[in-house]
Amino acid sequence: MKKLLTALSVLAFLGFAGAANAEEASGRIAMADPGTNTLTLEDGTTFEVVEGVPLDGLAPGTEVTVSFEQQDGKNVATSIAPAQ
Question: Is residue 8 predicted with pLDDT exceeding 70?
Fold first, then answer.
């Protein structure tokens, strides 16, 4: 039982640590390029988009919210959703 509680505590800690690294940005799309997997907002913020996050159909001027993480000094988008 003690091992189970320790394992659950470690998993909970890791889950919170991962969530602490996630950030969000909102704005209008300037460009979405599926060929290079990049998204640029009108304010000039650029994101590299992870595989599996679709860029097709994201038109310039569309308001979006981007969830991203900083990796090697780059903004890496993990999800893109219409702004609410």
Answer: no
- This prediction has a pTM of 0.73
Q: Closest by alpha carbon to 64, among 74, 75, 55?
A: 55
Query: What is the distance between the alpha carbons of residues 22 and 20, in angstroms, rounded to a whole number?
Result: 6
Q: How far is CA 15 from CA 7, 22, 31, in A?
A: 12, 11, 32
What is the distance between the alpha carbons of residues 64 and 47, in angstroms, rounded to a whole number? 13
Query: Alpha-carbon distance 51 to 41, whole Å?
Result: 19
Phi, then psi, of 14 in degrees rounded to 5: -65, -35
- Is residue 49 over pLDDT 70? yes
> Residues 6 or more apart from 55 whose CB is under 8 A from it?
32, 33, 34, 37, 39, 49, 80
pLDDT mean over 40-69: 96
